[in-house]
Each structure stands twice: as C-alpha cells, then as structure tokens.
Amino acid sequence: MSVMTPPRSAARPGRASGPREKFSDWANAHRKWLFAAPAMLFVGILIVFPLAWTLYLSLTDSQGSVRAATEFIGFQNYIDVLTDTERFWPAVGRTLAFTGVALAFEVVLGMGIALLLWRPFRGEKWVRVAILLPLVATPVAVGMMWRLIFDPNIGFANQLLGMVGIPAQPWLSGQDTALGTTIFMDIWQWTPMVVLILLAGLTSLSDEPDEAARVDGANAFQRFFYITLPLMMPTVIVAILLRGIDALKTFDILYATKGKGGGSFHEVETLNVYAYGLSFDYNQYGVSSAVLILFFMIIIGTMWLLTMRKKAVTK
Amino acid sequence: MKRRSIVKYAAVAAAMSLGLTACSGGGGGSDDAKQAGTVRVTLANHVWTEGIKAAIPEFEQSSGLKVELTQLGEDQLSDQYNVKLNAGSDEIDVMMYRPLQEGKAFAKNGYLADLTSNVSSDSNWDWKDYQEGPVKATTVDGKVVGVPIITEREVLYYRKDLLQAAGLQVPKTMEELEAAAKAIKESSPDTAGFVARTGKSAAVTQFSSFLYSFGGDFTDSSGKSAVNSDAAKKAYAFYGGLIKNYGPANVSTDMSWPEAMAIFTQGKAAFYTEADSLYKNATDPAKSKVADNVGFAALPAGPAGSKPYNIPSWALGVNQNTSNQDNAWKFIQWATSKERTLAAQKAGVPGPRASVWANSEGTSTYPKDLAAAIATSAENGVGHDRPEVVTVGKAREIVGEPIVASITGADASAAADSAHEAFQKFLDGEK
Predict the structure, then answer these.
(1) How many domains does chain A have?
(2) Are residues A172 and A111 in the same domain?
(3) Is A10 within a domain?
(4) Which residue in chain B has the smallest CA separation from A175?
C-alpha cells in the first residue's frame, strides 16, 4: 500500500498545474470520500431517502394518491394508530406471537438437528441436502403448497387425520388455528437456516473442552449444557438476530395463504400485512407510513436488545 | 498506482453509480414510445386477454404500431397501478382496470384520460352500441374515462344429475333454492347443498344480488348506509345461512371464486351462485369433473324479485400522464371493435355491446340455458355489485363483515348494525 501514499500537491511546487492535474490533486486529497461515494449514494438513494419520505408521509394526511395535495397533521396518525385497538394492537400481538413462537421452535429444533449433523456419518451429504430443501423453495410456492395440503375439504392433512380417526381440522381457514398453522409453515421453512448457522458455529468449536469434560466423566447432557451451549451462545444469538428480524417482517407466506387483510377475521394480520393493506388496498398512505415507522422502531428495538445481549455474552 | 490511476478509478466508480441510477430509470418515457410507434398495454390475466394476445399481430400489421404487452394477475395489476400511477409514470399507455373497484379512485386521482371526444368520433366503431349499465360505470362526472370490455351477471350454477336424482326442479325463488339445498344436503351428507364465496371482501359482490333481490342495497337514495335495513338483515341471514346450514363441512371463510368454484367442479356441491363470465371453468372437462352435468339458471327471485347485478367487470382506459394517447386510443378502438367483441364473446367472454347479444352468432357457443339466464339478468339487473365509493377495498371489508358473521353462526342482525355504524362513518369520511 505504500505506493498509495498521496503525494501532497501543496508540497510539490513548480509542477505544471493544468485543470487535469488540479482535479487529480483534488481527487487524491479526497480519495476516501471518492471511493466511498458510490456506496454512500446507494445507501442514500435506496435507504435514507425512502425512510425520510415515509417519515414525512406519516406526518401528513396523504391518501388516494401520493401526488394529491396533503396537509401536515403532526402526530395525529400516530395517535390514531396507537389508540386503535381493533387492528393495530392485535396486529402487534400477532407479529410478536408469530416471531416468538416460530423463533423458539426454530432455535431448539435447529440446535437439535445441528447436533445430529455435527459428527460425520454415512449418507451425511444426502441428509444435509434434504434438510436444506425447504430453504431454497420460494415462499409463495411454499404458501400455495401448504394451502393445498391444509385445505379443509380436499386437503391431504385432513385425509391423513381421517385415516387415524381424528376429525378434520380447519387449519388455515379456522379463526383460532390459522396463525398457528402459518407459524408451523414458517418453522418448516426456516429451521434449516438456523441449522446452517448453528452447524457453522459447531464446526468451529475446538474439541479440547469437550474431551476434557469427557475425561472428567461428564455425561452428554452435562457436556451440552455446560460446555457446548455456553461456547455456542454468540452463534445462537446471531441466529436469533438474523431469523428474528426476518420473522418479524414475514409477509409472503401470510399473503399467499390468507390474502389481503390476513383473512376474514384478520386472523393472521401482522404489522407488515396490515401496513400493506393500508397502503395498497385503502390507499391511506399517511396512516400506513405511521404504522411502518412504528414497526421499524419495534424492529430496531429488538435488534438493539439482542445486540446488547450478544455483547454481554461475548464478554 | 499513481494519481492518474486514482482518477481512473474514481471515474469508473462515478460511471457505475450513474449507471445504477440510469438503470432504475427503466424503459423510457412516453415520448420515446410515441416516436417509435409503440403502444404499451397492461392487461389482467383473463380469457379476454388470451384472445386479444393472439390477435395482436393482426393489429400490428394493420396499424403499423408495435404493441408492448404486460400481463399480470388481478392483485398484482392493482399493485402495479398503485405504484406506477402514483408516481405519475408515463410508462403505461393502455390500462385494463375494474371500473367498479378502482374507477372512482382512479378518476379522482386524475389517472384516467378523458375519452369523451374519442368515443363519439367514430360512428363505425359505434359507442351507442354499448349497453347503458356498463357505460354508466365507465363515465365519471359526465366524462367517459373507459371503454367496457367484459360484463358479468350473477347466475345460478347447478348440478343437473343431482337435481334429477333427488326429483327436484330448478329453483325459481330463494325459498325453493333453500328447500332444494336442504334436500340435497340431507340425502347425501357428503355433498353440499349450496356453495358460494365466503371471504369477507370477496363475497360482497356475489352477496349483492341477494341483497337487491331481498329489496335492499348498500346505500339508500340519499347516499346513507343501508346495510342494517330489514331487507339487508334478511339477505345477510339468508346468504350466510345457506352456507352455514347446507354448505360444505368445515367451510373456510376465506373463499373467493377459485376456492368456491373448485368445490363445485370437484362435484362437492349442488348449487353455486357466481358470475356468469366464469362459466367455462365449470363446463370445460379439463377443469371440471362435472362438466357434462352443469346447468345454469337466472338468480332465484327473492321478495323483491330476481335482481342480479349486471356490471362491466373490466374496461380499458388511457393513462392521463402519457403523451402517447393517440396510439393508445387506436389500440382500444381495435380491441373493442364489433368484430373483436364478437370474437371474444364467442370465446366465452360476455361482451358489453348490444349488437353481439342481438346476433345469434354471439350466443351460439354458450350453453342454451346460460344464454337465457344472461338475457333475463341483463333485463332486470342492477348496475353495481359493490358499494359505489372511492375506497372500495375498505368499504367491501366493512359491508362484508355481517356475511362472515352469518356464515359462522354469529348474530347477523347485530353484525349488520355494527357494520351500518362503521359504514356510515366511512361514507362521512369520504365526503
């Protein structure tokens, strides 16, 4: 990198200074900005601008068309949304329930499967490929597939239950069972990702502490809870962080299985589905933006909590 | 690496970031399209679209224009319009839209160009040939903003074989329909007596005919909510009751037409009320297990008679923001000509022109009983199948609530009262 040391132009008197050289000198002096510029431009156009625009919209009564005249109404949208116990708060509850339950199952199952796959065995390759299949399927196709399987009248799930004498279940079409069914679908699809992350963590662990514990006579249970798990904690938190943010934002499978509004009783309407309905079905861009900003804050908050936790663990 | 190369790198980086922004600009504006003689057409997935797509080369040859076609599912189409028209895009010239769902909102937002002078300019093309109802639906504040292409009425689909086996006549009244549905369900518990859409929003259009036939409507003559009138309450209870009592076991409350149609075509229901324009799904042996046994009849009469909706479900409009409006109109003029409308009608798409219905060729491909049912429905039909408001999506959810309540066995009358309150609040907010 020594060749990159900038020749300070001011320190080089007597050199011909045409416009080209001048620009060249200027570029040299500011090259850290120049090199970062494309990335900054990218972030600015695709992240900062939309966010700022959403924030602005959330403070207006924009509806119908975003180009129509709007009035600045301060925090009225936020007040309306935060006092809405019919759609907003239930949606918050569903979002958290969906994420919490799905995540708990995914991490526990993911850890179990990762431990099984950790040590080499025959046919390992095939098992790994099979486990990763749900991950590579597109969510909308997954939604359609499960919708067929869970159809209350002609679906495979109820036929299977019928064979063992259990009465047919409403699954996705039931007011009380729909959310649980979508959580199941999420677990089915995303546990493999958690497995992948945890497996990567497991393979990087060194064998010594485990061997030492073995020599000391610790059983498998003790070795897992007192050796492996504490060592794996940072990885587990990374998995929770990645999957948690993703799960909070789930939209595709919910929309593919229940459509706009999350069903006739809004039974799977999470914040994301609600905001989509507000902007694309009701064209209430102001209210929708307020919901999205609040949603964004929830995600940032969760992320911050988890990062704090991770720091504490790594220390 | 000397400073020269740093300049070079910076130049490449700058070019790349410019390239990125250029890419996001996309396909070019309407001026380019006009110059190149291109017309950009956005259509929904529909039998009508398939016919038009096959005939486009014919148009390209005769007009010398090139057609760029984008074809999308119904919901994706809506989303696409929401995004592009909101941004004032001039990348769309001709747009297929739903006059009753989006027409008012689009017109209010200024998305649709005024076609009033276009439609009256060509007497051969003949705007007067269009039926009154559809024309009304594509005219906003005295301006024609769209040309209807597909019309729909609600008719009764039924299973000839099941009725014959049970010794039942085709029901002519709502009471007879209920009695027949009950008889079928009782004689064979695996077969539903009746099926129809159940989703809160999806069911509203098919419920509307029941509402009118019971003597109600979504709003009264002064534009106030009327969804808790006695007639409306009876209609809610009747429609929901049919599905609850004689519908499929474990009935879902999310069904739109694909799900309800599937139950009927799988042979699991005897009666089904649905839009006539979807009849091919039931009579095409490739899609229906009961294709040979499907019969059609006009909607049974309620206390106020048989009053199905008779509406234009789709129309073609021109984007207000495009400078390519002349070419867009040329496309519409061709796609909605008498010949093309007749061709579409023969392919199973009920047209909005009176001439195709007067022409015996126009109904030659339809099952006889369906053609008869359509003729009756066109006569006494009502021109809307959902609340006539700007934010139709929200209104449908509100007035659909009692349908779902009634299907799930909750108190339909109480649900109608609370829907009335919410709907009136909604209507006040729209003013």
Answers:
(1) 2
(2) yes
(3) no
(4) B253
